[in-house]
Amino acid sequence: MDLPEADRSRIGKDIQKVEFGWPLGRPHCAPLGHGLWEVRSNLDGNRIARVIFCMGDGHMILLHGFIKKTQKTPRADIDLALARKREVT
Description:
The protein is of the alpha+beta class and about 90 residues long. It is built from two helices and four strands. Strands 1-2-3-4 form a four-stranded antiparallel beta sheet, with helices on both faces. The model has no long low-confidence stretch (mean pLDDT about 95).
């Protein structure tokens, strides 16, 4: 899914804030368990974006990004991020 430039910019700035401020907690970043974290971005139109990442050798490894449609992070999104984490770590 393609996002508008304004959304990509907001998400990129939020990722950068977490990357250069690590370790950083809420409201910018939250743990999901199993070594996964999420960057939390609020977009225009009451939309919420999440980018799931892990840390590896002191680097932030982005695993999965999506527009959140429910209160809780869907299990399928966490499982996809975990599968990608196993591939890269």
